Amino acid sequence: MAAGKMTPDLIERLPPVRGRLTAEAPLARITRFGVGGPAAVLFRPADPEDLTQFLAGKPAEVPVTVVGVGSNLLVRDGGVDGVVVRLGRGFARIEITEMTVSAGAAALDLNVALSARDAAIAGLEFLSGVPGTIGGALYMNAGAYGREMADVMNAADALDSEGGRHRLSPDELGFDYRRSALPEGWIFVGATLEGFRGKREEIARRIAEIGDERHTSQPVRGHTGGSTFTNPADGPKAWELIERAGCRGLALGGAKVSEKHCNFLINTGDATAADIEALGEEVRRRVAEKTGVTLEWEIRRIGQPLAAGPKEVRP
Predict the structure, then answer these.
(1) Which domains does the chain have, with CATH numbers?
(2) How confident is the model at residue 4 (pLDDT cuts 50, 70, 90)?
(3) Nearest to 56 by CA among 158, 164, 157
(4) Which residue is catalytic, options 227, 258, 284, 286?
(5) Is residue 44 flagged as an active site residue?
(6) Active site includes 169?
């Protein structure tokens, strides 16, 4: 059953909001892959207080799923039950105080890096190479070019499943490689990040270098969810293992392993979420068979699948 089938009853059970509640809202258009089914209900809260009151007033059994700009997300074709929360403008503030950057969870990582540049704050340049928002970066301890969120976060603000507000330290978040220990059902609403005094021109140069490197080495203009698998703790990186297993350019349905960077999966134009996920699982199978290493998904996968017939894998 597609997620939207439960919508009429669900809408009636939700508390009033100042933001927007949309029934059977398409999610494919807000993800970088451009695939996936609808949200039973999509909620765009006006601001943190609106979200707080919603969480405090909604029925406890209604599931809530948070999405950002869909840069590291695969929504399955059957859609997502319950309420999908998408944080928008009311969560995108960026404020500078000395060497500290305070950012809402919906602030784009790139915009945070550029704001730090303008204030001559160094140490946050790596965020220009992380496609997504601060909330998502916190959730997965995102990193690139030698740094990660654990290196720069002073504190994070989050709401629990009942709307209670919490300020969390790095130790409380238990950062590990590409993950945090945020309790199930909690939602990041903002964070404070710490940099150090730098020279604006040097910071700008580093951001430009990161941009050039990304465009040279990654399929950033394609419909892709970014890095598909996390790098193993030891040994070769994920892309090297995928290369060894002969998966560069492998295709299934409308999904394909990027020939530019083989730890990226691409929607070539008519892929389904099932195509992308099945191709990823085939890559994992071949890598494990060839190298003995089991790759772990970095891309977050949500929602329900739809029944579909098997498709042939093409070299």
Answers:
(1) 3-86 (3.30.43.10), 91-203 (3.30.465.10), 223-290 (3.90.78.10)
(2) very low
(3) 164
(4) 227
(5) no
(6) no
